[in-house]
Design a protein that fits this description.
- The chain has 19 helices and six strands.
- By secondary structure, the chain is an alpha/beta fold.
- Helix 7 crosses helix 8 and helix 12 packs parallel to helix 14.
- The protein is globular, with a radius of gyration of 30 Å.
Length: 460
Amino acid sequence: MLASFARALREANIPISQSELNDAAEALTIIPVEDRESFRDSLLATMIKDPTHREVFLRLFDLFFPQAVLEGLTPNGLPEDENGRDRDEGSDDELRNDVYQALRDEDDARLSELIRRAVQRFGGVERGRAVSGVYYTYRTLRQLDSEAMLRALLDADLDGEVGPSQGGDSFRQRLHREAAERRLAVLKARVSEEVTRNLVADRGAEAVARTLALSLPEDIDIVHASRDELARLQRAMTPLAHKLASRLARRHRSHREAALDLRRTMRSALSSGGVPIELSFRPPHRSRPEIMLLADISGSVASFARFTMQLVFAMATQFSKVRSFVFIDSIDEVTEYFGGGRDINDALRLVNTKAKVVWLDGHSDYGHAFSGFNERFGDSVTKRTSVIICGDARNNYHEARVEMLSAVRLQAKQIYWLNPEPRSYWNTGDSVIGRYAEACDGVFECRTLRQLEEFVSNVL
């Protein structure tokens, strides 16, 4: 089972080495598996190196090692009769009412038993189907009428106090609502767990894991991420920035190592009969690059621009200078918003509210933006400047004005373009990325934090 668990983690892109798997197996000779919390923590300590991978680990752990299995209990549900219905002959309404009562009274043991019956009766789990069980969970909750349960909990009289529907101060009402919503969340989570338990009993944990489509924060498509996924990405940014900054610092130090000066060494060796007893080195010279970041913040790629700016400024100490510009159909510099130790979220809020990026109609016009950059900021570009452009190059059929970007390239050290669209979409419709690529040193598909990390690590 442990080997299957490690295989599922690897399929979710969590790196697990053989030595780490051996360490986990060794830990289990000391930690009793019946102590589920200690068992989980020992696997977590030996197999997970990145804190952003913890969430996926926990979901897979619950899948492979549910409490019932660790206690040696059968994973099967309650016995069924020949019609597939549980032996309790109570009506559907009685079952709904029992679930509500257990939820209101916070009777955990009773709630678990009732949820098993509810999933068996309402879920309609079909054996052998390769599905994640989302629909079965939805169907069970719909039949239980979870929204009606929430309303009933909100109207309930807690501890003899006045309920929200009968008046009372707003603070007490808010506490009451939060308590009701928390109980409903417990119900939804328990139903989902029970559905998953049934699927695992039918098809096995590995088969179910493949249907969950679990993704690490660094593999989430930034442009199409949901609100919860964006929150996961935000939590992953700080450790990623620290890791990349450390990596760049090591590279700068290695480049600063003095190179052998062969001419001076051989000249010095003449005094010792041609034997180079003392080596001579050239004085180290390695200047950190200047970065100019030009980011399209139109609606389609705004979230990608946000994370790119955040990452670059989090690593600002590894560059001699960082300047940031944003554009839609006009361009504006926003470097000052990131100074003075300002919180990154406050800085991004200023970018969204104060930057002057609309010239005509508020639709992306790369040609006009590049022309404005050349006119206003072109003199600041030097042979030490690396220009990074973030955008999908969808120009809304405006004039591309590639010559404006070529003019920047003549002055800059290098120009790189990060495109958050899949490569298969490039040069379709109003995309002109192929034309702009002629003026760039490299054009990269960059849809995820993993791809952004690879760019920083391998190119900058």
